[in-house]
Amino acid sequence: MSRIAIIGVGNVGAAIAFGLIPIEFIDEIFIADVNGKRLEGELIDLIQASHVLRDKNIIVTGEIEDIPNDYKIIIAAGVAAHSGKHNEIYEQNLKIVKDIISRLAANDILIVTNPSEKIAHGVGYPSIGPYHRQFGDCDRIIETKGYTNWGIASEVIRYILIEGEEGEYK
After folding, report:
1. What is the value of pTM for the model shown?
2. For the segment 3-55, what is each residue's pLDDT rounded down to a tens digit?
3. Which of 3, 89, 111, 164 could form a disulfide with 28 if both were Cys (CB 3.0 to 4.6 A apart)?
4. What single string gives the DSSP state of each residue in 20-80?
């Protein structure tokens, strides 16, 4: 049984959630976002997709503090990479990610928030522990594939599938 929480269901977080729905070893996807309207809209779309792709609903929502500690956490929350200067985005996103981590009981965290390598270092990766890790370099993915939410999401999904085959996400 594998349960995943996605914190931040903006463009990248929502794309990751949609991409994870068909993966059979994922039993539940918990979504959370500070933007209530966006969360509500994505929740409706994800539940509908879940019924179509899985014949049942695997999507749940709640507050960050409600995420059980046995969930794998994907942090995709933050200011969009195209909305300002990189240094300002880093400072804002670092503050957001630190706040999220301080509210989590879970310790298996995958950081996707840009710039992911710098954010991971800023929250103490790898000194926090072996389960806190960044997801590659999202800036490199954007540079290589162009800025596409699905480009980043597909890399995260590929990572989870590979980890799942090796047993970590099962």
Report:
1. 0.82
2. 999 999 998 899 999 999 998 889 999 999 999 999 999 999 999 999 999 99
3. 3
4. HTT-TTEEEEEEE-S-HHHHHHHHHHHHHHHHHHHSS--EEE--GGGS-TTSEEEE--S--
Query: What are the residue boundaries of the structural domains of the chain, listed by start?
Result: 2-165
How many beta carbons lie within 10 A of that of residue 160, not counting itself? 23
Neighbours of 81 (CB within 10 A): 18
Fold observed for domain 2-165: Rossmann fold (3.40.50)
Quote the tokens at residue 126.
Answer: 């790898």
Alpha helix (H) residue ranges in 115-166: 116-122, 138-145, 149-165
Q: Answer for the pair 21, 29: CB distance below 8 angstroms, yes or no.
A: yes
Which residues pair with residue 52 across a beta bridge? Answer: none
Dist. CA 130–CA 108, nearest whole Å: 8
Identity of residue 1 = M
41 φ, ψ to 5°? -65, -45
Cβ neighbours of 70 (radius 10 Å): 12
- Cα 162 to Cα 60, 88, 143, 165, 167: the distances in Å are 24, 34, 23, 5, 9
For residue 106 the two structure tokens come to: 């879970």
Whole-angstrom distance, CA of residue 90 vs CA of residue 66: 27
